[in-house]
Design brief:
Elements lengths: L8 H8 L1 H5 L8 E5 L6 H17 L2 E5 L6 H13 L4 E4 L4 H13 L4 E4 L11 E3 L2 H16 L3 E7 L4 H14 L5 E8 L5 H13 L6 E4 L4 H11 L6 E5 L3 H8 L5 E4 L2 H17 L20 E3 L3 E3 L4 H15 L1
Parallel strand pairs: 1-2, 1-3, 3-4, 4-5, 5-11, 6-7, 6-8, 8-9, 9-10
Antiparallel strand pairs: 10-12
Helix pairs in contact: 3-11, 3-12, 4-5, 6-7, 8-9
């Protein structure tokens, strides 16, 4: 696949200005869906806020759907329901790309634009991906990990290998750590969507291998607080924890000094920008949906919109919390 092209800042600005110039163009039956899994997670509530803020700006219907737990099959059912309800466009975060590929392609064949956000389904016919450059997120995390370890130590990773976004994060971490030969990956643990695995594994390691592990890196949102809870319960203060995302528990553990830092994504931005693009595609239709635009040098859409990442630690925690509260309230 060719190197992804990011949407320029100017193009994103143009998308954000659509409601100012085009509010009157919308049809009463425009209906957009955001489909994901684990929808009660704070991460996805942030995405919902951005989605609803965009729907308010555009004056269109918006539905946020999916299971409350990590359940790719239930997510597939929610996606199928969106097709049956004749969605105008769909944003989807693919918990398991293999499960969703057929249905994404079916939606495209039916003339429904589909954009992947957060977790991609690159083998499907989805039009583009809006979200984090997960490889770069891993590089960013790896650099911070090396600083915290002072270039030496053994690390345990918690992940879900079947998710392409997490696999890319791990690849980024590994690449970053190549420069530090005295930092070793001791274990890569698949939590399989269950954060209790991180809790139990950390408990086991502190019981048997406490002196052999110096750091824990969590590549998804839920494991960080589990690791921090175990360390706090056992009064362990000499382990480095790098988390992912910005749920309130993770931020609290940063405030308490148990988690050193977290890599923040921008789910609010992903869903807001994603809905604006879907809306524009509805009103300015592509000649065809079933085209791999990533291989076209004159494509009318980008292949990839990088929404960016940032490191959150004690130094910028308050500023981040204030901004998050303001944005979430605006999207309700």
């Amino acid at each position: 696949m060719s190197r992804p092209r990011s949407l320029s800042a100017l193009a994103i600005l143009a998308i954000s200005l659509i409601p100012a110039f085009g509010c009157g163009r919308h049809d009463s039956d425009e209906k957009y869906f955001l489909v994901t899994t684990n929808i009660q997670l704070p991460y996805w509530q942030e995405a919902k806020a951005g989605f609803m803020q965009a729907s308010s700006q555009l004056r269109v219907q918006a539905k946020f759907v999916g299971p409350d737990s990590y359940d790719p099959k239930a997510e597939q059912k929610a996606f199928q329901d969106a097709i049956q309800q004749k969605a105008t466009g769909i944003l989807v975060s693919a918990a398991d790309p293999a499960v969703l590929q057929f249905d994404i392609d079916k939606a495209i064949a039916a003339g429904i634009p589909v954009i992947a956000i957060d977790a991609d389904a690159p083998a499907s016919k989805r039009l583009l991906f809006v979200g984090t450059n997960n490889y770069q997120a891993g590089l960013l995390g790896g650099k911070r990990l090396a600083e915290e370890l002072k270039d030496k130590g053994d690390v345990v990773f918690f992940t879900m290998p079947e998710q392409s976004n997490l696999a890319e994060r791990l690849r980024g971490y590994r690449e970053a750590l190549v420069r530090f030969p005295n930092i070793h990956v001791a274990r890569v643990v698949n939590i399989a969507g269950d954060p209790r695995v991180a809790f139990d594994t950390t408990t086991e390691i502190l019981g048997k291998e406490k002196d052999k592990v110096n750091a824990f890196v969590c590549l998804e949102a839920q494991a960080g607080r589990e690791v921090a809870t175990v360390l706090n319960n056992r009064n362990v203060h000499d382990k480095v924890v790098i988390a992912m995302d910005t749920d309130s528990d993770t931020l609290d553990w940063i405030d308490k000094g148990v988690i050193a830092a977290t890599i923040a994504q921008k789910p609010y931005t992903m869903s807001m920008v994603g809905l604006h693009i879907l809306d524009d595609l509805y009103h300015n239709k592509l000649p065809r949906l079933d085209v791999d635009w990533s291989k076209d040098s004159f494509a009318p859409i980008p292949a990839f919109v990088d929404t960016g990442t940032a490191v959150i630690d004690k130094s910028n925690l308050k500023a981040f919390r204030d901004a998050k509260e303001s944005a979430t309230k605006a999207g309700k």
